[in-house]
UniProtKB/TrEMBL annotation:
The keyword Membrane applies. Residues 1-178 form the MHYT domain. Keywords: Membrane, Transmembrane, Transmembrane helix. This is MHYT domain-containing protein. The chain crosses the membrane at residues 24-51, 58-78, 90-112, 124-145, 151-174, 194-215. GO terms for cellular component: membrane. Pfam families: MHYT. It comes from the Bacteria.
Amino acid sequence: MSFTGSLLGLRCMARARSNSLRDGWMVAAAVAIGGTGIWVMHFIAMLGFTIDGASIRYNVPLTLISALIAMLVVWIGIGVAQRRDWGPGALLLGGAITGAGVGTMHYCGMYAMKSDAALDYNGWIVAVSIVIAVIAATAALWFTLHVRGTLATVGAAAVMGVAVSGMHYTGMFAMRVQHVAHAHQPSGAGAAQLLTPLTVGVSMVTVVLLLHLAMTEAGESEARTTRSRRPAQYWPTRD
């Protein structure tokens, strides 16, 4: 999902660079990268996470907030990185904002996970995961601004997917679990009750974006073909 969301986001940004509806395509890119490429990947991975002998539940409002954070910080980062009047610092600032936001999304999502086991984190590894997020976000923003061509886009999406996954699993590696005697059963929604519908919902939005992107590109390609043929219809020939 990281690769799919990143690929779709890069294509949306390519449209934003060459289309009058720039703001709309930027929002679509933020939804694709932040929603599918980052958030959905995070919670699909969480579906496979279990703690032996302990229950896991999810706080619904915090889980939804984490999704909004992911999309919002990508949108802000894209907007900041495109400020050419700010020079190279715009990309670095956008990457820092987006990376810190992605880290916030991850740990907000982890805080939304409730268990009857005690959870804590290794601070140094958490810091490393944030650094990875900032570096990955900066690279991703650079890709959104400069990558052109099919092969380059696919390669950039693969790099972004690996980076997002690396940040997630580094953050998971920072977590330490300790069983607690006589702990209360956690409240909240189970993984299947919450994460599956949310993941499917965001994935459906991704499919809609993908179809819209494909139809838009096909329509513009047909329009270009029509314009290229039009002079031949009216230009006098020697026949």
